[in-house]
Design goal:
This protein is mainly alpha-helical and 198 residues long. It has helices at residues 8-20, 24-37, 42-49, 53-66, 68-72, 87-96, 102-113, 119-128, 146-159, 177-191. Helix 1 runs antiparallel to helix 2, helix 2 packs antiparallel against helix 3 and helix 7 (102-113) crosses helix 8.
Length: 198
């Protein structure tokens, strides 16, 4: 068992940062070390934090080596990307000539750098550069000026079907149940099948 000595300030820091730190993995590390400061056994700490024993030992060694600052280091630098070396060139090119589709951007990247990536990877790369998808246009609302209103009215009259505003007549036939009921009522009364009095 690893024996560590915790000061009162470190315990308070662990106690508060296990909930307030922005990264959930660091929160878990703080929780594990806070439970260790309460002198709980390793198997209980692992059960509460839902981690394995080697992970807990790694947390304890990081704290032993660098203190609380060692717990905040995630140690993940990410995967190296061959497009990062060409980021400035590609960004300058795409700012001047924005691609219409991700396939077009994929072909441009391959021509400029010789690196081929899938359309999904290209979209993520463009997003990391700060570029966004182009949004489709929308139908404008009515205009404020009389000239524009007349122009819009002329366009609507020119492009619309002449019959689209005409109301439709109610087609088909109309059927009322009342005459049928009045006609059948005397027959039912004479047969004794059904009797209704109004």
């Amino acid at each position: 068992m690893i024996k560590l000595i915790f000061s009162d300030n470190e315990i308070e820091s662990l106690k508060s940062e296990r909930y307030t730190h922005p990264h959930p993995q660091v929160q878990r590390k703080m929780e594990a070390l806070y439970l260790k400061s309460l002198k709980l056994e390793h198997h209980l700490i692992c059960r509460i934090c839902q981690i394995e024993e080697p992970t807990l030992v790694r947390y304890l060694r990081a704290y032993e080596k660098s203190g609380i600052a060692g717990l905040k280091c995630l140690g993940y630098a990410g995967q190296p990307s061959s497009l990062r070396a060409h980021k400035d060139t590609l960004e300058e090119h795409f700012r001047k000539h924005p691609p219409a589709t991700s396939a077009q951007a994929q072909n441009t990247i391959e021509k400029l750098t010789g690196v081929r990536r899938s359309p999904t990877q290209v979209r993520e790369f463009l997003h990391r550069m700060g570029m966004k998808h182009r949004k489709t246009g929308f139908v404008p609302g009515p205009s404020d000026t009389p000239e524009k209103q007349a122009e819009q009215a002329a366009f609507v009259k020119k492009t619309s079907s002449p019959n689209w505003r005409k109301p439709r007549r109610g087609g088909g036939w109309f059927f009322s149940w009342m005459p049928l009921i009045l006609f059948i009522q005397p027959i039912w009364d004479s047969c004794g099948v059904f009797s209704v009095y109004f």
